[in-house]
Every structure is written in C-alpha cells, then in structure tokens.
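>> Question from a student workshop board

For tomorrow's exercise we were told to take the sequence and the ligand below, predict the bound structure, and bring the output to class. My setup keeps failing. Could a helper post the expected result so I can at least see what it should look like? The ligand is A1D88.
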Amino acid sequence: MNFTEIIYNCINEVVTITLNRPESLNALSITMAKEIIRAIEQARSDDNCKVVVITGSGRAFCAGGDIKAMKIGMSVAKARNYVLEIGRLILAMQDLEKPIIAAVNGYAMGAGFNVVLAADLIIAAKEAKFGQAFLQVGLAIDAGGSYFLPRTVGLVRAKELAFTGRIIDAEEALNMGLINKVVERERLEQEVYSLAAKLAQDPSQALGLTKMLINRGLSADLETALAYEALAQSVCMQTEDHKEGLAAFLEKRAPKFKGK
Ligand SMILES: C/C=C/C(=O)SCCNC(=O)CCNC(=O)[C@H](O)C(C)(C)COP(=O)(O)OP(=O)(O)OC[C@H]1O[C@@H](n2cnc3c(N)ncnc32)[C@H](O)[C@@H]1OP(=O)(O)O
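>> Workshop helper replied:
Here is what the output should look like for this input. Compare the format with yours to find the bug.
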C-alpha cells in the first residue's frame, strides 16, 4: 500500500506507523489522517501483525492540526469533514482489536496530543512535550480530547490543560497519569519494541477482547460491562490459547500462545 505522509512497516509481528512530515512537525493534514486510517485497516487485516506502534519522524510526534492548510481557508463543510476525518482516525485506533503503543518522540500538540491519548500504551522520551494547543489558534478541543482528557486526568486538570494550553513535559505528564513511562530519548526505541515484543507473544484474542472490554467499559454501566465480559470470556474459554495457558500453568512451564 503506498503512503505519502506516513511510513508503514511490519517487522517481527509489530507494525510501525511513522508520521512523516518532519518539516511541519508532522502536522496532521487530512491526507495524513486518511493514510493513518488506511494503515490501521491494513494492520487489522494482517494476521502477521500483533501490535501497532505509532510514532513521529524528526523532533515531533505530531504538532496537531495543519495550520498551513487551515490558513489557506476551509469552508464550513471542508472544516467539518477535516475534523470528522480526524475523529474517524481516533475511532479506528479504538476499534483495532490489537494494542497500539504511542512512542512519543517529541512535541504532541493539539490533535497530536489527543492521538496519543487514543493509543493504549504511551511511552515518551524525556524531551517530549504535550499541549492542548487549540485556543492559541482560536479553536476548540477536538480529536477525542473532550472524551479522553477528563477520563484520564479528571475534570479539573482537563479544563486547566485545555483552557490554558500549557505545555507540559513528559515527567509532568507521567505524574498526571497521562502516559505510562518516560525514558531517555536514546532508549525510546528499545523500550517500545521490547514492550511490543512481549505483547506480540500474548494470547491475541484475549488481549484484543480485553482492549475492547476496557474501552467499552468507559461508557457502560456495571451490568452492561459484566455482560460484555461474560460474552468475551465465553469466546476466550473456547480458544486453544486458553487450553495452552491452563496446561502450561499445571506443567509449570511458560505458555506458547498461537493467537488461536
Ligand atoms: C483539527 C485539529 C486542530 C488542532 O490540532 S489545532 C492545534 C494546532 N497546533 C498548534 O497550535 C501547535 C503549533 N505549533 C507550535 O506551537 C510550535 O510549532 C511548537 C511549540 C510545536 C514547536 O515550536 P518550535 O520548536 O519553535 O518550532 P516552529 O518553528 O514553531 O515549527 C517548525 C516548523 O513546523 C511548522 N509547524 C509547527 N506546527 C505546525 C502545525 N500545527 N501545522 C503546520 N505547520 C506547523 C512551523 O510552521 C515551522 O515551519 P517553517 O519552518 O516553515 O516556519
């Protein structure tokens, strides 16, 4: 599949999607949003892909919506389609039944920050910086930020970050519970791909269903969440991986899951 604004590669069951417009700090153009969606669909249909890593080229992860494209001017219809396309990208990340790790290599601003929050696991370089940079260009929050931010840091801090656009560093993001880990830049790749390798060995159906259950659980009541869990567990209990997990435990050996 040919891409112009992202790089897609798959090595050892891990797909890496690299945002690749370094001259604009990987600003999220409508082309880039569409290409990331296509890349996620490609990863979904590739049985060899167990995990997806999303990162940026150069010194930014993603500097948010494409200001240069917006400067040229967008009709109401074009602006709505642009933001809806970014919304489709967020939904594609949520609906992929494979874990997505965001490797935050630098600035994650505006929609770029919220693409990070739509990932399942987030590891950031120490130099990474995060900003809900919308008001500075006269825009409201988007890219799922109104959904993920308050659910991640709470209402008060969500409004502080969104209303002030304050840029926070990776340590503060970690302390706020926005990311999982901060590492030295030179260790980012190793940390991300060793986590990805571990996840790639997990029972992929149970892992994918766990992602779906937690995502759906965010907006379900307890009864519905328990019903979803029972449904998912009934599927997992029919898998070869479940049988292998039980056998490995009783034989006191490491399980070898096959994703079946
Ligand atoms: C629908 C979605 C909506 C949204 O997401 S709205 C939010 C949009 N994003 C922002 O408001 C952030 C804008 N960018 C910045 O605030 C700064 O950048 C940074 C703090 C991220 C980095 O600042 P520094 O290190 O000084 O770099 P630099 O000179 O500002 O940028 C380097 C080149 O990258 C281009 N660029 C940066 N952000 C964007 C963007 N969001 N859209 C398009 N281009 C961008 C600049 O213009 C410049 O380019 P050149 O070298 O040609 O002057």
